Amino acid sequence: MTATAPELTSRGVALAREQRLREAVECFEQAIGVDPDFALAHRNLGYSRELLGDMAAAIASYRRVLEINPASIDVLKRLGETLFKTGAHLQAAECFEAVCRLAPDNSAGFNDLGVALSKLKRHAEAAVAFRRATELSPDNASFLTGLGAALTSTNRHAEGEKCLLRAIELSPNEPSAHSNLGILYKQLGRLDDALRHYNRAIEIKPDYPEAQKARALCLLLKGDFLAGWPGYEWRAQMGDLRFVHPTPRWTGAGWLSLVSLLCYRFWATRRESTCCSRRISRGRRLTFGRRF
User: Fold this and answer.
1) Model pTM?
2) Element (H, E) at 90
3) What pLDDT sits at residue 254?
4) CA-to-CA separations, 167 to 138, 147, 160, 164, in angstroms, rounded
């Protein structure tokens, strides 16, 4: 007798639990062949494809589930997370907005929305989403960190500091809370306080490119070029930077004889250029060129 769609799906789930993902995919596809509108098979097929690294196919499966059941909060969240991983932050935000509409008491949904909006540089809207998440889960350090970071990005430093300090109180070993508090203090010109929190973030998580680079910029602003420039090499580890040409790297040699440094326009931002143009040893100044 031919197996039913639920039976084939159950068989696929068992295979997936044993990490036999490709066999599981075959079972889910067979289930869909038996019943094209069996949402659970599409959902599990999407998850298995995601685990196999086929994000486009996973997204297609999740979208098919939502065609069958548009109110599936679990799949909306999963689709948003997958889209976010692929860099489709706007589409991810739309999924998380739908989650929040369907489940207005879902604190994780509002936090996800805040994260996506932050990636889109829509910081004021992100702060609203994060604030709702913290209202629903007031003692969640991760949600407070997101709210503190969004408030910092909108220059609401007093509120942001309060949120980040509370996040650290709740979770002293949360590196992102320390790193974001460092960002806030750096914006206020409190470089020693910023360095203290960057150092703590790196102590907790040594492989933290954003904190490593931010600490290096603080050191450069304070004039500690010997420590700052090597640390600035962490910029190459940040996922949002692309180096399309070989870039110069300072090895520490010939520092006193250095007269100028060429800064490539695709990584030298205005803020970084400002800190780098401070006077250095023997009254010399770093000068900047542009390469096209």
Assistant:
1) 0.81
2) helix 89-102
3) 55
4) 10, 10, 11, 5
Alpha helices in 104-259 (DSSP H): 107-119, 123-136, 141-153, 157-170, 175-187, 191-204, 209-221, 225-232
Q: 49 with 58: CB under 8 angstroms?
A: yes
Cα(224)–Cα(278) distance, rounded to whole angstroms? 11
Task: For 233-275, list the strands marked E by DSSP.
Answer: none
| Closest CA relative to residue 182, chosen from 270, 207, 168, 223 | 168
Cβ neighbours, 10 Å, residue 23 = 15
Cβ–Cβ under 8 Å, residues 280 and 254: no
- What are the tokens at 13? 């789930």
How many CB atoms are closer than 10 A to CB 94? 17
pLDDT at 237: 73
The owner of tokens 């098979």 is 41
**Mean pLDDT in residue range 146-163:** 97
Give residue 156's Cα distance to chain centre. Answer: 21
CA angle 92/65/86 to nearest 5° reads 30
Helix (H, G, I), strand (E, B) or coil at 279: strand
CA separation, residue 73 to residues 28, 68, 106 (Å)? 21, 13, 10
Do 126 and 143 contact (CB within 8 A), yes or no?
Answer: no
- By CB neighbour count within 10 A (0-12 exposed, 13-18 middle, 19+ buried), where does 242 fall? exposed
- Buried b / exposed e over 207-234, threshold 16 CB at 10 Å, is ebebbbbbbbbbbbbbeebeebbebbbb
Give the pLDDT confidence of 188-232 residue by residue, as tens digits.
999 999 999 999 999 999 999 999 999 999 999 988 888 888 878
